[in-house]
Write a structure and sequence with these properties.
6 helices; 7 strands; transferase; Acyl_CoA_acyltransferase; Aminopeptidase
Length: about 170
């Protein structure tokens, strides 16, 4: 897996990921449309990235992720999406670990905080496996179903990440 900047040529493929008819209802607001809308209105920052996730062997675009700084200093967030035909191959896992290593190591952030819709069991499980812990819950109106979407807020500190994922040198 390789992370690189999103190129103009990637837009068609990323938009195609939104056309998946098997997507769960919550994904309609949590997928690439959300990513694009967020990026369109977000001020540029040196720590805000739009990254493509591609296979190292074939350079196939399998997904994307974006980062943004939180309102609290030293805290960042990210969103990740993997195309439907590329899920369950470990790409999200690898991309998240790589991103966290860079943001905690080189960029010196102290914490990562993400919001995941409670219906997205796969993402909640993945983040728990990576060491994220639930910090709270929030609800927001869902314009597609006239109901509420429930967001699980999860966090991971740089110290917890280092302990779990980076080998110690003796």
């Amino acid at each position: 897996m390789l992370l690189r900047r999103v190129a103009a040529a990637d837009r068609r493929i990323l938009a195609g990921f939104d056309q998946d008819p098997t997507r769960a209802p919550y994904v309609q607001t949590d997928g690439y449309r959300h990513w694009a809308a967020h990026r369109a209105n977000h001020p540029d920052s040196p720590d805000d990235f739009q990254l493509a996730i591609e296979t190292r062997r074939d350079q196939v675009l399998v997904g994307s992720m974006c980062t943004s700084q939180a309102d609290e200093p030293g805290v960042f967030s990210y969103g990740v999406g993997i195309g439907p035909m590329h899920r369950r191959h470990g790409y999200a896992d690898d991309a998240i670990i790589t991103l966290l290593a860079v943001m905690f190591g080189r960029r010196k952030f102290r914490k990562c905080q993400v919001g995941i819709y409670q219906e997205n069991v796969a993402s909640l499980s993945l983040h728990s496996k990576l060491g994220f812990r639930e910090e709270g819950r929030a609800s927001e109106p869902d314009s597609l179903s006239d109901g509420m979407l429930h967001l699980v807020i999860m966090g991971l500190t740089a110290e917890a990440f280092t302990t779990k994922h980076l080998p110690r040198s003796n």
